[in-house]
Specification:
The protein is α+β, with helices and mostly antiparallel strands and 251 residues long. 22% of the residues lie in helices and 31% in strands.
Length: 251
């Protein structure tokens, strides 16, 4: 048996039936718990994994990054194949590779990109029920984009979230891009930042929908951002419309 090696993997998952990424007390299903169970089944060891982001209950991922360390005497392709065979159908490792021993998927990340999906039509579409928020009233995407433009740059985002770590009070983040795209009835909000606050994207999406519906102007949205007052923001958008789609590293 070889000595412990550090591995990095890209994970995709449908978060519908999970209580978020992070392992929780009791038997509540989580993405981390499912992957660690698969690792134990394959390697015979109890292995702790770390992730680039702690997605909430019901949130999905196309490109979550995780890392772990374990002794494994076969190749990475064999490890990927064995883990996927032991994972539920709604979780899959898209790629596995070895990485240097001090790699950390969260702290080494230089940016993360999320997308929020809205299905904007009078009648719901069953095929989007798990991955998009159905909004009936027509939305003005131009107004939503005008408001989203105010997000770009370095700001205090306290109006839209709170730190993920209870010991931190830093709510300043840098947003590199924030844009809306429309394909028929499907609206997609893409936002990339150096890091995110807890529920930040969903809170922003909820306020931007108020802008699109006409009950909040782009200028008022900018005022809410500047005020850093969570009480002034709109309702938090439902989790199933949100997906983590990329995590970037310096290399």
């Amino acid at each position: 048996m070889t000595g412990p090696v550090r591995y990095r993997a890209v994970v995709a998952y449908d978060g519908t039936h999970y209580c978020g990424f992070q392992r929780q007390a009791g038997d509540r299903p989580t993405i981390q718990g499912a992957i660690e169970a698969a690792l134990q089944a394959v390697t015979g060891e109890h292995v702790n994994i770390t992730g680039a982001g702690r997605t909430d209950a019901g949130v999905h991922a196309h490109h979550q990054v995780i890392a772990w360390q374990v002794a494994w005497r076969h190749g990475v392709e064999d490890l990927q194949r064995a883990l996927n065979a032991n994972l539920p159908q709604d979780i899959a490792l898209q790629a596995v590779s070895t990485v240097h021993a001090d790699f950390h998927p969260r702290f080494d990340a230089v940016s993360r990109t999320y997308q929020y999906q809205i299905y904007n039509a009078a009648v719901r579409h069953p095929l989007y029920a798990r991955t998009a928020w159905h909004v009936v009233r027509p939305l003005d995407m131009a107004a939503m984009q005008a408001a989203a433009h105010h997000l770009e740059g370095t700001h205090d985002f306290a109006a839209f979230g709170r730190p993920t770590h209870p010991a931190s009070d830093n709510t300043v983040r840098t947003v590199y891009r924030a844009r809306w795209e429309r394909r028929g009835a499907q609206l997609t909000f893409t936002i990339e930042a150096n890091a995110f606050l807890q529920r930040m994207v969903r809170s922003i999406a909820g306020s931007l929908v108020k802008v699109g519906g006409g009950s909040l102007s782009p200028e008022a949205f900018a005022d809410i951002l500047a005020a850093a007052d969570r009480a002034r923001a709109g309702d938090t958008a439902p989790p199933h419309g949100l997906s983590l789609i990329n995590v970037k590293y310096a290399e």
